[in-house]
Design a protein that fits this description.
Elements: E1 3-8, H1 22-39, H2 45-50, E2 54-55, E3 58-65, E4 74-84, E5 88-97, E6 100-110, E7 112-113, E8 118-119, H3 124-132
Antiparallel strand pairs: 1-4, 2-7, 3-6, 4-5, 5-6, 7-8
Length: 137
């Protein structure tokens, strides 16, 4: 199941040529993952960190930049979980705008106990929500 969110390319995202400066995409990825956890998986990151004392850091990120995005454009960000492990989740994100893909990112996030700073198993309800959204085939 694909989760979709949108973002507008703002002046603070772009270089002097008006195109997204590549590190800003990483901020957009992080914001999209926050939206995904809150809106689709039922756990906002503030509650996750402050109440349940775990987080979901990115441990691997492989990004392919396909086409530039420009200031003022609205980008659609699609997120699909590909595999869920004991404490990890492989995810694909696709940024698109004006009918063309701009960026594809494959990432791995890990469920991490904040105090111990080590991987921990996904809480059962969250793991179930991740597994329910797995891409088929």
């Amino acid at each position: 199941m694909t989760f979709t969110t949108t973002t507008r390319v703002r002046m603070g995202h772009v270089d002097p040529a008006g195109m997204v400066f590549y590190p800003r995409y990483f901020e957009m990825i992080n914001n999209a993952v926050e939206d995904w956890f809150e809106q689709a998986l039922g756990m906002d990151l503030a509650t996750m960190h402050m109440v349940h004392h775990f987080g979901v850091p990115t441990v691997k990120l492989d990004v392919t930049f396909l086409a530039p995005s420009r200031v003022g454009e609205d980008l659609t960000i699609s997120i699909v979980p590909l595999a869920v492990g004991r404490s990890s989740c492989n995810v694909r994100l696709v940024f698109s705008g004006a009918g063309e893909d701009r960026l594809v990112a494959d990432m791995v996030i890990v469920c991490m106990a904040v105090a111990e700073k080590k991987a921990m198993p996904w809480p059962e309800d969250l793991r179930g929500n991740l597994a329910a959204g797995l891409a088929s085939g």
